[in-house]
């Protein structure tokens, strides 16, 4: 919002003979605000945008606590990946993201993915045994656990990915998702 407040005086001072459009925008939760300078002056438009939150697509069996955890995780979608990172300001690694998201929902988890593999209750390392909010643990080299993600439901997971460079959703039926599934070695229920 501050960006638009600063940009509007600048946009208003530009001569109206410009034929190109200049757009400045930001989002405020579910509201997108866009200021446009065109041949007819400055227009400001606020619209609601479709929620990226998977809560609308969660299976009916999703618990309220899992829905809250997933909504919290969704807020940090796009936050940059940083090895050792554990806050949105510095960026997240996989386990820092999981610890942060669950911590915001009063579920205390250990810091590393290997430690998180001992939290809660063990489940079969199969997607069909998972519920939204469960942890998926991976061994990329086949030696020890080195990655963790949150199962969202509908064959999707949410995680901070070094490969993607940010917090992303991955569909487990894609080639990328299948790469993860081949390395899925453990699952835990912590809610």
Question: Mind explaining what this structure looks like?
Answer:
It is a single chain. With 191 residues, the protein is of the alpha+beta class. The chain is 24% helix and 31% strand. The strands form three sheets. The chain has a six-stranded antiparallel beta sheet with strand order 6-11-7-8-9-10. Helix 2 (64-75) packs across helix 3.
Summarize the structure.
The protein is of the alpha+beta class. The protein has helices spanning 2-13, 64-75, 94-103, 113-116, 175-182, and strands at 22-28, 31-38, 41-48, 86-87, 91-92, 121-123, 135-138, 147-153, 156-161, 166-171, 184-189.
Total count of strands? 11
Which spans have pLDDT < 50 for at least 5 consecutive residues?
A: 1-21, 27-31, 48-56
Order of SSEs = HEEEHEEHHEEEEEHE
Specify the structural class: alpha+beta
How are strands sequenced across the largest beta sheet? Answer: 6-11-7-8-9-10
Please give the count of helices.
5
Keywords:
alpha+beta, 5 helices, disordered N terminus, 11 strands, 6-stranded antiparallel sheet, 3-stranded antiparallel sheet, 191 residues
Helices and strands, with pairings:
Blueprint: H1 2-13, E1 22-28, E2 31-38, E3 41-48, H2 64-75, E4 86-87, E5 91-92, H3 94-103, H4 113-116, E6 121-123, E7 135-138, E8 147-153, E9 156-161, E10 166-171, H5 175-182, E11 184-189
Antiparallel strand pairs: 1-2, 2-3, 4-5, 6-11, 7-8, 7-11, 8-9, 9-10
């Amino acid at each position: 919002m501050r960006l638009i407040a600063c940009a509007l005086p600048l946009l208003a001072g530009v001569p109206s003979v410009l034929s190109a459009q200049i757009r400045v925008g930001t989002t405020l939760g579910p509201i997108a605000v866009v200021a446009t300078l065109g041949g007819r002056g400055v227009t400001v438009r606020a619209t609601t945008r479709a929620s990226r939150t998977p809560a609308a697509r969660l299976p009916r069996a999703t618990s309220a606590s899992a829905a809250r955890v997933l909504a919290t995780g969704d807020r940090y979608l796009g936050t940059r990946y940083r090895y050792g990172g554990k806050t949105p300001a510095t960026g997240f690694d996989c386990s820092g993201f999981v610890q942060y998201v669950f911590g915001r929902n009063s579920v205390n988890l250990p810091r590393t993915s290997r430690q998180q593999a001992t939290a809660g209750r063990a489940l079969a390392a199969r997607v069909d045994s998972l519920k939204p909010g469960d942890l998926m643990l991976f061994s990329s080299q086949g030696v020890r656990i080195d990655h963790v993600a949150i199962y969202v439901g509908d064959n999707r997971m949410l995680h901070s990915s070094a490969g993607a460079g940010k917090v992303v959703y991955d569909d487990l039926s894609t080639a990328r998702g299948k790469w993860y599934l081949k390395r899925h070695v453990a699952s835990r229920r912590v809610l």
